[in-house]
Structures are given as structure tokens and as C-alpha cells.
Design goal:
This protein has a domain of 59 residues. Helix content is 63%, strand content 0%. The chain has five helices and no strands. Helix 2 runs antiparallel to helix 4. It is mainly alpha-helical. The two termini are 40 Å apart. The longest helix has 22 residues.
Amino acid sequence: MSDSNERPDGPDGPGRIPDTGELAQQIEELERKSATASRLFDVRRLIGGLFVVYGLILVITGAFDSDAEIAKAEDVRINLWTGLGMLALGLFFLGWQLLRPVRPPSGEELAEAVNGDDGQDRPDTR
């Protein structure tokens, strides 16, 4: 497009502008998909899940350590304690993800990102 006044070709033909209802519906659908994708790829879920799984493995291993294995670790049930620590950390990450879910960017934030507006012309609202 060379002219800034030209309309992009829409699915219903060249230059057709969707009405407000269609735009609202498209925006809602995109926001729903964005929210689902951001929750799906939340790194806290991955980290928490891995720590819980490995923590459970170590807790089970540590609960059944032989006396020789405990003596090798200077009479500390190292597998059990490390597993409990990993389990606690994993549960912390999963709880954090549940209590403070990822919020997808709002329409205004997306528009600012597209337009390159960094908010420097507005007063500081902190």
C-alpha cells in the first residue's frame, strides 16, 4: 500500500470496512486466544511442575534409603531433605501461578506497541 488512505483488502472484498459488531467480536476472540496462549505457556507452570516431579522422586528415594547410603552422606537423609525442598519450591511456583495468573496485554497496550508509543509524552502515573 503506497497511499495511507487506502483500506486493506478484507475477507469480504477490497476496501470493505467491518462494522463495529464484527470488530468487537473479532477483538473478543483474539483476546480469548491470547489469554489461553499466555496461560498455556506460563513458565511458572513448567518450572513448578518439574520441581514437584523431581521432588517427589527424591522424597520417595530418600524415604527408602539404605543405612549405607545414609552413612555415605554423613548420616543425613540428603535425598529426602533435597526432595522436600524441591517439592516446596515447586508448590510455591504452582501456587504463585494460580494466585497471580498472567494477564494478557490490553487493547490499549497492544495499540501502543504497534504505534510505537512509549508513553513518554504522558505524565508519570506511578
